[in-house]
User: What shape does this take?
Amino acid sequence: MKYQVAFAMSYHPEYLLLDEPTAGFDPVFRKDFIKIIQEIRERKIGILMSTHILSDMEQIADEIMVISNGELKLHETRESIKERSIQDQLETFLTNKVSIKDLLRKRRQ
Assistant: This one.
């Protein structure tokens, strides 16, 4: 995939379309490849990437779209998704009203 991206870049594209670009990569190679994609992004080249790897999206995407069964389910910025996730987690924690003693007791069992 690294060579394919390099080849595509030789044409000075406005956009890159990447389909599961890090699938099957080991963690070290994935990290290196993500750095390459981030450098391309800094050159103001648009990147449309499909992936099932959430950490890839978090490191690369400005906007995230979730498509399920051919239907767009979500289209938001990465930051708004993060904010909502933190709020949801806090809300869940506050509304569950589980005491620390109960949590420790369950953990010991």
